[in-house]
Design brief:
Elements lengths: L1 H11 L2 H12 L5 E5 L4 H14 L3 E3 L8 H5 L6 E6 L5 H13 L2 E6 L12 E4 L12 H26 L1
Length: 166
């Protein structure tokens, strides 16, 4: 069952990896870029919409090898690129990860429990299982992970703001 698999995934995530991802997502001194594949783009879009409520400098890259290529070429050291790349891995995600890596940007990869070609270029890898036993893979764990990242980023942003106000 999809929900069981999603809950199982959450139990196997590295607390250190989640903390590092939250630190990067909530760091308002860094520009944040998000991209997903054919279906996982929905998760990237969901996270982008939420992060836009918490911070500035958030960009959703819909076509990093086409109309968003100028933005990709403008990636800088310290930028954060969040990639959602699941089974049937997208060439655009691998190319974006390589471009980010060359520019000195940091990559957060959200992937399934299979071997993703983007992983070597990622500073943080969060494996959210997608296998549902059907032709279509479930994105339930990816959305659940996104909800966790949003909640933790909101808490982190609030803590930083309260320290700044002191």
């Amino acid at each position: 069952m999809q929900s069981d698999r999603a809950v199982e995934t959450m139990g196997h995530l590295s607390p250190h990896a989640i903390d590092r991802a939250v630190d990067l997502l909530a760091d308002t001194d860094r520009r944040l870029f998000l991209h997903g594949g054919r279906f996982s783009h929905l998760i990237a879009q969901n996270l982008a919409f939420h992060m836009e409520q918490l911070r500035q400098q958030v960009s959703l890259l819909e076509d990093p090898t086409g109309r968003d290529l100028g933005t990709v070429l403008d990636l800088q050291r310290g930028d954060v690129v969040v990639l959602f790349d699941y089974h049937r891995y997208q060439r655009s995600a691998a190319e974006l990860a390589q471009s980010a890596h060359r520019a000195g940007a940091l990559v957060i990869l959200v992937t399934d429990d299979l071997g993703c070609p983007v992983a070597p270029d990622a500073e943080v890898v969060l494996a959210a299982a997608s296998t549902a036993g059907t032709a279509y893979h479930s994105l339930t764990a990816g959305f659940l992970l996104t909800e966790l990242l949003v909640q933790r980023s909101e808490e982190h942003t609030s803590e930083l703001q309260s320290h700044h106000d002191l």
